[in-house]
Each structure stands twice: as structure tokens, then as C-alpha cells.
Amino acid sequence: MSNNNSGELIFIHLGECGCQIGKSIWDLFCNTEFKSNTYQLFEESIRKENTFTSRSLFIDSDSNIIDHNTFTQQIRLTHCENKLKYCCKQENIINDYESSITSLRSQFSFGNNYINYIEERIRKMVENCDHLDGIIFTHSIGGGTGSGMICRILEQLRSKSWLKGVTISSFSVFPSLSEMASSTTFELYNMVLSMETMREYLSNISSIRNDLIYDYCKYELKIENIEYNTINQVISQMISTFLEPCLFSNESFSQISSKLVPYPSMNIISNSLMSIRNNLDCKELFSNQYSLTIDGIDNAKSISTCISMRGTDFYNINKDSIANYLNHRKLIYQNVFNSQRNIGNACKLFNSNNIVHIANNSTGVRNNLEQYLKLFDTNFKKYTYIQKYVLEGLADGEFEQARENLESYIDDYKELDRDYIYNIIHKKKYPFFN
Ligand SMILES: Nc1nc2c(ncn2[C@@H]2O[C@H](COP(=O)(O)OP(=O)(O)OP(=O)(O)O)[C@@H](O)[C@H]2O)c(=O)[nH]1
Ligand SMILES: [Mg+2]
User: In this protein, which residues make up the domain named Tubulin/FtsZ GTPase (predicted)?
Assistant: First the structure.
């Protein structure tokens, strides 16, 4: 049993990207270091002693990605030697035989077939919690299944009384924007179509980009052969470090999530990750080379931030010096957490036992959104692939509406930047409250 009072967390992994990240994160959670938090992450079997089931649901429209046996056995076998056996419930792995490519196909055909069953599985997991703290999705916002199913599930769950007050959020892989790894037209369309529903129902959308993680692996971690597996390991380190205050202290996921988002319409969170070998220089917390979400984070205005550190060498790092540095940035909310926990072999990739995660609600995401909008417009004007969406049930004006929503989202951020500059000129102390 854990020595903290935080509630349980449930994970839902959607599509190829979401399921692979899920596998990586459960591999990490199954590490012995997380044993003290068993009840938050795992259901204990009443019948079989020492058997724990992950509070997770894996869903994909493509059966090649999820194979019941490999998924359950991999998780089970790896950890036999620890005498604790973790596994994923057979019924919590849902797959089909066709990949969907478009978000609409996934929402309607695959979605219609499975939505009630999925709801039932989620309800069962919720019933098995004493005090559910949050539901966390992992997915790619550009994937057909990743984008379509998250909207379908969120709409289905919206009015369920058994979920009242539960924080629902996501870790979402956004389309890449670098020239070397540009995204497909489908990814852009799927993203634009699903943004509105996600913005409305998720308390926050924690955003990451594969192209930036790739650069981070290459230039910061100096890894040569970078595969999805490598990128997923970085993502799972990022997620678990973010959750450190909830798993190893009394802080609750719902509290941190709501404080990170003081304005409900601005709920895209950017992420940075640092592995520290020597000393932590506070000025580097908002450096570009550590950003996994935005290029140009150093010039952006932060509204709120949550910094989580773990590692044995952090004994010397003074939380107050970081808090002082953050004070100068005039944030609405800041939280600095230092678990000083040794995770040993769990982060070989980083060549360091000290990791800092920075969750940052920043106006910098506006740059990303503007680039997506521009790319969307270029493709949409040429009617590239629109027919495919029409055949799969696109309603009249749906794309135009989704595009407009994205534009108004960008405007919200522009307004905030303008207010901020106005308040700086007039020397107001807390620019966003005035
Ligand atoms: N980080 C990471 N990204 C992935 C992985 N697999 C796919 N992606 C990215 O996810 C996007 C495509 O989404 P998928 O998850 O493959 O699509 P899906 O949700 O399965 O939807 P379908 O179109 O129905 O197959 C692309 O941007 C890929 O680069 C993975 O294992 N890790
Ligand atoms: Mg797929």
C-alpha cells in the first residue's frame, strides 16, 4: 500500500500510437520502483494472490497492433522475478480487423460497434476505484482511431453520473511540423476535426511532437538509432515524471490539472524534459532544446507551470531557488516538486538518474496552431482527400466549422499575448488577473 492519500488513475490507450505508448508506460510502471503505488495504478486480484491488473484499456481498430497474448504475457513475464505479477485484463484489450485512416470512419463504424462495450469496461474500472483521481488518454491526435475514438468516447461519457467530477485529460501526439518529418494530410484533417471536442471535454491536452522528441533524442541524449520505441520511452518517462507528485506525495492529479489551466479555453499544455548530469540552471528550464512541444518556447509567455524532479542527486537542489526564479516570470500558478527518488535502471536512456519535467501552459502553442492552420488551408483549398471524408459521413460545413474553431482558439492566445504586453507596459504585478 502506498503511504499517500491520492486517488487512482485509469489509462485509456487508443490507436497504434496510444497503445505503443501504453505498453511503454506500463513497462515502466511495472518496474519495482512503482510497487509502493500499487493501488493507484493496479487492481489487486481478490482470487489470485500477488497478481495485479493494470488500470488500463487498450483500444485499436487494427488487430495487428494489439495481440491479446503478447500484450498480456509481455506485461506478466517481464515481472515474474519480482514476485508481483502484473497483467492487463483480457477484456480490456479491444481490437478489430481494419485500420481507419480517417477520424470519421473510426467514430462511426468501429465506434458504433464497440462504444457500449467500451463504456462498460470503463465503468467496471471506475467501480473498482475507491477514489478515482483521473482518467488519462494516450493517442495520436492525427491517427484515424486516435482522433475519432477519443471524440466518440468523450461524447459517450459526458453525461455519465458515475464520472461526475472526475478529471479527464490526455497525452496527445500532435502532427510533426519540421520539414524532415512533415505530417500527412489525413493527420492534419483528423486533428482539426477532433480539436473542438477534445478542447471542450478534456481538462487538459498535454501535447508532444515526434519530430521534437526525435531531435531531443539525437542532440540531447546522443542516441544514434532512434525508433518509435525510443521515442515512446522518452514519452513514458515524461508522463511518469509528471505524475510523480500524485504517485509519491499527497498531491492530486485533478488539482494539478485544474491549476495548470486557469482559463478553460486555453488547455493545451506543452512539455519539456531535462536530464541533469551536473547542476540545474534555472534559466534552462524554458530552453528550446528541451521542449518536446513547441519550437520557440523561450520567447513564449507562461501562464502556469508545474515542475517535477526525480532522482537521487536532487538533494542539493533548492526548491526555493527555482520558485524564486519562477516568481520573476509572474505565473498564475507554479508548483515545484522534488521527489528525490532513485529510479535507477528505469531510465538508462537518459544516462542520468535525474530527470526534470516541465509542464507549461504557454502562449507559445499559438505558433504550432498557426502552422497547422496554414497547412490545413493549403490542402483544403485543393480539396485534397476531402472526398474520402464525404464518403465516410462528413456533414455539410463540418470542416469549415472545425477550421473556424481552430482560428478562434488562436485568437484567444493572441489576445492573451496582447494583454500581457499591455500589463507589462503599465507595470502591473499579476498581468493576467488585472
Ligand atoms: N510516438 C509515437 N508515435 C507514433 C507511433 N505509432 C504511430 N505514431 C504516430 O501516430 C501518427 C499516426 O497515428 P496512428 O496511431 O498510427 O493511427 P491510429 O490512431 O492507429 O489510426 P488509424 O489511422 O486508424 O491507423 C503518426 O504521426 C505517427 O508518426 C508510436 O509508436 N509512437
Ligand atoms: Mg492504426
Answer: 83-250
